[in-house]
Amino acid sequence: MLGAALALVASCGGAQDDGETTAREETATLDEATRLAMLLPSSADRCSVARPSLVADRRRPLILHASQGDVLAWSRDLRIVAYASSRRLDERGRAQSVTLLSLAGGQGERREELEAALPVRVRWEGEPCRADQCDLPRASMLDGRTLRIERGAPSEARAGGSPCVDLAIAWPSAVELDVSRQDCEEARAEGCVQRRILEPTDDGLRQRVEDALESERAAMRALESLRLVPGIEGGIDVDRRGATVVTLRAISWAELELLLEDERIERAAYRRRDEARRTRALDDVDVESLPLVRQQVQLREERLARLHGEGRRRAADELATLLSAATTRHLATRPADALDLARRLVRVQLDELDDPAGAAQTIDAALATGTAPRETWRGLRREARIASLVRALATPDEASALDDAASAMREDGLAPDDTTARAAARDLAALRAAGATHELAESAWTHARAVTRRAMPLRAMPSGAGAPIAALPATLAWLAELGGDPGPFSVFVVVRGTLAEGARAVTGDDAPVLRFEHLADRATLAGSGASIDALLRLGASIESALAPGPLTIDVVLTSISTPSVERTLRFEGELGIGRVRIARGDAWIARHDWPAVERYLADPLRAMGARLFPPPELVVRATSEEEAARLARIGDDPPQARCAAEGPEVRCIPRPDSDARGALSRIVRASLGSGLAPATSE
Questions:
Q1: pLDDT over 70, % of the chain
Q2: By the 8 A CB rule, do 54 and 12 touch?
Q3: Which run of H or of E encompasses 241?
Q4: What is the pLDDT of residues 318-373, one digit of tens each?
Q5: Fewer Cβ within 10 Å of end Cβ, the chain: N or C?
Q6: How far is CA 354 from CA 314, 364, 384, 433, in A?
Q7: Distance between CA atoms of 406 and 433, rounded to whole angstroms?
Q8: Region Disordered: which residues (predicted)?
């Protein structure tokens, strides 16, 4: 109630000036607003009455800033003499409303003209309807000038007895009147009502709000609360008459004009924003204007990202057409500005349109400017030629496409000779066909080739050395960090071994492992990860792609915090069912007690897996019950995980918002002790 009393008007309308045309001639002898109010249903939660005929046409937009009613009452498309409406919720909570309009100039006799002028769609009472038309407001003409519009379920309340009738009679000069039921402060009290009266004056509008409360005491409390509102005296008068609180406010025409101007400025800003966000037809885009081209390219790229199927193809065609026109127009004369457009065009041609020939032409044009970054654009040229090779596979053009792709690899220094270049081109084409990005595939191939060609002395390992291959990448990273190297690490793994039957070119979605058939003397897998979870997923992908047999594994550890700290590890061995038996390893691999590493670190990591929620339990199999009890005490950390010995096992249960890896680190340090060493010290 108090909030409603404080909802004072922000804008308004006014009295008729001399010589201004309105529908006032229709009300010279009869107050149409009162007549309409008498036709409203008696049962309503709110009723409103308006007299648009008392307001000059040019000032009707101002009234909207003060109006609490329906904007329909102040429509400038209709010549409305008077307006009345009532609204209520039925027993099932459904909204019902009745709106009455008194029209001037015989508008009600010309239905098509009336329908065109109405700002809302209606269906005429008694006419058949289909589908959603049946949900439209129902309209009917009560007589030649009175239009009735009803929404919701038909009202069964009788006409007459609306509280707006007395208010309309009492305030014949008011342009808008409103009566609404309000919730009383006391839960069991009834009869609280708010009345709003809006009157024109010579200087503007006067708004009167009467809050009829349940008692004089409630009115006194409301009045005191209102007087505590900061700035309430600024043009606002508050008084009490018995159980009614009366609030008066005057608003000048000048103030309303300023509000209307602010609204116009805001609408203009919205129009400019909408215009800036409008995707224009290609013929309407002036490619001479690079700012306009960039804007339209951005809009089309955003739209392309949301589309699928044939719609995406059409959108890609349009985007390529626009980019091609702009690139052709500006690349020779303004290469610094046009190169980004050319790059975007290449991406659309390669990623969306499968048009490597078109991409090659765009790339050649960019390189011909002499200003394009050669490393970037030569990389795009290699990608385009690999894409051409993919299209040419198993066709008469395959040999020629292979020559072109290998030539680019050799010319750009990625392959030292034609044999290596051809091998690389075949592998990269197979990976592109399998869905791998060219950048990822080429980077992995280059890195893997460098790693596998590196000579490293290996030492024989004691029998029993080994680890589960799924946990191997994470185990090596963890060992290096526990040994003192500055982690965390980016880990790149290269495995040369026997592929599992049906192994794909790209294995694993979360941690992809790429297959290279022509990189080394055996099939090669390569992949990378950084976090422990990513490394566990990487290990699982590698395990699924390999068959039992001899293998060689190279692991490159690069410190993320200190990139200059890097170490390459290598070992050879035999893969059994999920476990690698390590036969020979480099110095750092050889210095570790691998049965202990497997027991205290690798096996627990494999059992925990990469699951984040719920956090997995940690289980460590100790050598005895006594050791299990000791390790449980070391690992126990109540804020993170509770550890307890269960026979020869240590079981750590993490809190829901934590994990048990801290406990594992403490257990590994206690178990391996002096066997830990930084990988970079070797």
A1: 92
A2: no
A3: strand 236-241
A4: 999 999 999 999 998 999 899 999 999 999 999 999 999 999 999 999 999 999 99
A5: C
A6: 13, 18, 10, 11
A7: 17
A8: 635-658
